[in-house]
Structure formats: C-alpha cells, structure tokens
Amino acid sequence: MSHPDRAGDETSTDDDAASQTTEDDPQVPERTEQAPPPPPPPSVAPTTNGRERPHYELRHTMRGHTSSISAVKFSPDGTLLASCSNDRVVKIWSPFTGELIRNLTGHSKGLSDIAWSSDSVYLASASDDTTIRIWDVDTGITTRTLKGHQDFVFCVNYNTTSTLLVSGGCEGDIRIWNAAKGKCTKTIHAHLDYVTAVHFNRDASLIVSCSLDGLIRIWNTTSGTCLKTLAEGADAICAIRLWDYQTSRCLKTYQGHINLKYCIAACFSVTGGKWIVSGSEDNKVYLWDLQSREIVQILEGHTDVVVAVATHPQQNMIASASMESDLSVRIWADRGGQ
C-alpha cells in the first residue's frame, strides 16, 4: 500500500556499490584515434564526465493489478519479477516476455513490500493485515505466516543467506525472524513513526532502518543495540542521499525528481554504468550517474506516480510500477547493453 513519504528518499547501502562511490571508475576507456572520430549518434552520447549515457527503452507494459502497486523486485537469478499491490495480490511475471506466470493470494489487506530469498525459491510479503507471508513461488503456496507486528507491516528483507528476515512496521518496531521456523527472535522499538525500509548488511551483523521520523539508524543484529543515528538537517530538501554510515558523512546528493508525498525508494544499477534509479511523483523514472550526480536519462510512459523501481541483477533492465490511475508494471531495457 502507498503511504506518505518519509523525510527524504532512502537508498539501501549495498557494500559493493557503496565502496565504488569514493573513487572515479570510468566505464568507457579513452580513445586514442589519430583522426577526429565522426560525431557519435544519439545512442552513445557521453555524459559530461566521459561515461556513456544509458539508453533504456520500454520493452513491456504489464497490467493486471487493480489497486496501487507498492513494490517490484527481480528474483536474484534474474528469471522472474514480482510485484505487489494494495489489491492484496502478489503477481509473478516473466521480465523477458511480460507474461503473468502466477498470482499469490492469501493476504486479507493490501501489501507494501516483497523480498526474494537468495535462491529465488521463496518470496516474503509484508501486509497491512499485520502479517508477513513466506511463499513457495513455484507452487504458490504459503509456507509460513509470520505474526507479531501490531500494525501494518511496511517493509521486509532477507539476509544474504536467507536464514533471517527483518521487517519494519507502522508502529515503529523492527522485528527479526528465523525464516525457516517463522518465529520472531527479537523486537526492537526502533522509531517513533513508520519504519519505511530495513536491510541487513552483507554478513547480517548490522541492520539499517529508516523512518518517517527522519532518522536512519544502524543496529547490532544480535543485541538489538542502536550503534548510530544519521539525521538530516532542518533544511532537508527533496533529494536522494548516499551515506557512508561508518563516518556518518553524506557522500552524494541526487536531485531533480519530485518526491513530496509518497514513500519512493531508490536503488543502484551496476550491471552497465553505475546509476542511481528512482521513481518520481511527476510520473517518470530518473537515472543519475552515481559519481557525477548528473541526470543521465528520464524514462517517460507512466501516467501516475512511479512509486517503485527495481534493477535486474545481471542485465541492463529496469522495472517500474505506478499508482491508481496507471496500475502498470513496465520493463525497460538498455538498447546498448543487450
């Protein structure tokens, strides 16, 4: 379900991607031709820092959800795309054909988030019915129903080995779950408002959370202790920020999109160039160069707020999803990266 926006957009701090933000890493080597080359066609126009721009084009438009879509996620093996919606249904699609493969039904209220297990076998879904369901995607059967949150469950994620789940609720709590048993092993009273995103770091020793209270917090997974709080200043602007959580420094700020009302998450794209990707309340998808912070492409086609985006784990492919008057999932592929 779409809910009001947190204080500024958040991006998950993936260790590999974050480590690439502190030094220049050109994707296109310098040419050493003797004669000046002919003017490049528009499809390879370089950015101001010498990298090639992305050239994503619409490949598929998938329809079927009957209420606002809240999340889209590619499976880790890249073969499937999952979407969830306020219509209480998780849909499983082929990102390559746009075909609907399966519906996962069972929740009694709308959904806010989904997360794949690392082997692409299971999918966790977070619902306003206060539960998390773990689905066997191939059979469409719920294998576990996780109960414990006292309010809407807004976000959910697996650790890298998929032995643990972490979830965030609208009561401000974070819960850590044993994924195999479906049992809550720890509850952290983390924030004073909706928890809008939760992620494990690579070895699951830490959890990062963010909230409508405007805070980003780092937690020790074992003890539940808050190790650090990152806060924006009182003059916070509409922007996506990239943080170094070890130094509490904001490394980069990405601006140009619109995000004043809804909770819109951003993500990294590292399969070709290194981009930041986000939806926007002007019905578009924005791509920024991770290093230069320059907007390198804007994807147009949706007719309502783009609240969810995801990037393919191996290919230069983006999924986006939109709200009530649009209700489409769109697949975009880079024509230069196929």
Automatic annotation (TrEMBL):
WD repeats lie at residues 62-103, 104-145, 146-187, 188-229, 273-298. This is WDR5-like beta-propeller domain-containing protein. Residues 11-27 have a biased composition (Acidic residues). Keywords: Repeat, WD repeat. Pfam families: Beta-prop_WDR5, WD40. It comes from the Eukaryota. PANTHER family: F-BOX AND WD REPEAT DOMAIN CONTAINING 7 (PTHR19848:SF8), WD40 REPEAT PROTEIN (PTHR19848). One of its GO terms (cellular component) is histone methyltransferase complex. Residues 35-44 have a biased composition (Pro residues). InterPro entries: Beta-prop_WDR5-like, WD40/YVTN_repeat-like_dom_sf, WD40_PAC1, WD40_repeat_CS, WD40_repeat_dom_sf, WD40_rpt. Residues 61-234 form the WDR5-like beta-propeller domain. CDD domains: WD40.
